[in-house]
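Hey, resending since the last one bounced:
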Amino acid sequence: IAAGADVLIGTPGRLIDYFKQGVYDLRRLQVTVLDEADRMFDLGFIADVRYLFRRMPAPAERLSMLFSATLSYRVTELAFEHMDHPVHLQSQADTVTGKRVEQLVYHPANDEKIALLVGLLQRVQPPRALVFVNTKRGAEHVLRYLKGNGINAEVLSGDVPQRQRQRSLEDFQSGKLAVVLATDVAARGLHIPNVTHVFNFDLPPNGEDYVHRIGRTARAGEAGHAVSFACEDTAFYLPDIEAYIDAKLPAAPVTSDLVAALAPPVRREPRNQGDWGQAGSKGGRAGDKQRRQRQARAGASDSQDQAGSPSTESGGASPPARGDADRGSSRRRKRRRRRRGKASDAADSS
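The structure tokens again:
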């Protein structure tokens, strides 16, 4: 960057970091492009975006382009705040969801969801499947069951280290990895061709996220499948989703032949072996370090006791008992008080 570049691409946080280090200057900027503007609000990045906009040339002195999948009030306000007479261009297909996406919804009980997902994956064996889960903890829970039942899968979420994310994406694109579990943080940034199936293990809370999720499949004229689970916890999202896409999702029954007999989940890997989840206080690198420190302190204390305390077996005198020492100290304090009293009486008589 310091050597010179015509185009600079980055996330808001990284761009601010380099700007504060003086790596580049915003004062001579000519063109600004903000992609995924609606997600900047959802992910809490909009303050960083405004920080950068306020250090650029005035809106009339630069070309600004803002892209957003949904045009909410907040996005419109941002456009009029930091753009010069913006023109609204909208590209909309005939339907909100792709025509070549076959959509289906199941209504399993909460305790049937994992068994149903495993059963469908084992039956269909999709070459590339994305499974969307609403929380990172939920994604890790599902992952352990998938691996325990012989399904090669990995998680993409905000807790996954960048190196691990990149390796998982490369394996997914090359076909080495058939199933990826993702949270909505990863939903917008994934541009992977030939995704055949999208599973909404958890229904998203709104129609916009539903459209973004199933938009990962059926790209470039290809066909795709979107399967959603509407359980007791998320079924109430379904009416809003159907109203947003202006269509009724066809429902399929949860039959016994679709529900797999689950094997136990695999155990959580220790943090220092690549686990990206929440490590317990007694596990991982931090726990090992604390144990080593406690052992070292205990060993040092034992050595000092052995070196500094003579034992009766070697002929040395036994150390005085603590009670004897306390009584001796008390007698000395009493003698000092009596001497001070006598000195005070002598001074008064003189």
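Residues 322-349 form the longest helix (28 residues).

Sorry for the duplicate.
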